[in-house]
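HUMAN:
Sorry, I am quite new to this. Are you able to go through these amino acid letters and fold codes? The numbers rather puzzle me.
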Amino acid sequence: MDLEIRTEDFDAFFDAPFNAYGTDSPYVSPLKGDLQRFLSQDNPLVSGAGEGALTYFTAHRAGRAVGRITAHVHGASNRIHGVKRGYFGYFDCADDAEAAAALLSAAENWCRLRGLDEIAGNFNLTAMQQIGVVTEGFEHAPYLDQTWSPPHIARLLMENGYAATFPMATMETKDLQAASDMSLGPKHQAILNNPDFSFAPITRATIGQRLEEARLILNASFAENPMFVPVSAEEFHFQAKDMKWVMDKRISAVLHHKGEPAGCVICVPDMNPFLRRIRSRIGITTPWHFIRQRMTNTRAVLIFAGIMPHLQGQGVNPVILHHVLKNARDAGYTSIGNTWIADVNPMSLAQAEKAGSSRMHRLHLFGKQL
């Protein structure tokens, strides 16, 4: 059957991974409306890079989408890190060598036309969202904000001249009710006893303020991490637009020191089981499935944790994490996953393992010189 490559056919882009992987795969799509919003030129992550900073392609056989890919520029990242890099993202494809080669070629040519000299991915759409291609642990169902891909995706990339770089891991604490507790020593207890430290209330009325404080902590605490780009208020709240409606105030925490943001752990219920049930589409049964999710869900996902630089290494992070894990246990959660941690950050990996986490997925970025 002849292969056709289309540009910016959104319905086909949404359908492609379902067609490519089948209904029994662990793949979970973002909500269709959210995905369309992310790919629009209204997304401040790409709108600031100039007109046409993002596009996407789909591969079709007999009119059926069998693969997809985005191509985009993150101008702020290139300026900060001194590179001329293009990005591909959402690379999902059937085990079809011709379709994969055509999609990757379309993304590469788009980058070359913009004077870029390298390409890397998956970035869906930046390093602060879903990134990477799964290279081990394919059997594990992803939590919200974790990427998933079958074994043939990494192979197809390598067959097209891409090399694996920047190894990462996702983590999971199973059977949270029986997991080993993080012990708090005298240093940690001193923080809890210090009136200069206090947990800020998270309520419907204050959630906007807490999320803005989390953004400030994110930017300060990740400033020295590779690939990090400070997130503007517009970008952060564009990404977190619906987070306040699904957040469980019991399992996130923002710690203040002398009234100022000191550190945070942002954790939300895992919405992937809900998204799987509705196939990431809003329909007549969606409200029922949402209520069912709220009543039966026992999985949560740690989106990020951060400590202000001047307080790092003083025991603040274990205090916040202990607080969140205890509250999650008390609220009936049985497992917590977290988004990617890079191998270049061994302290965070060790901290997660100390909290009782084990590794789920192995991920890599895949890159190529253009």
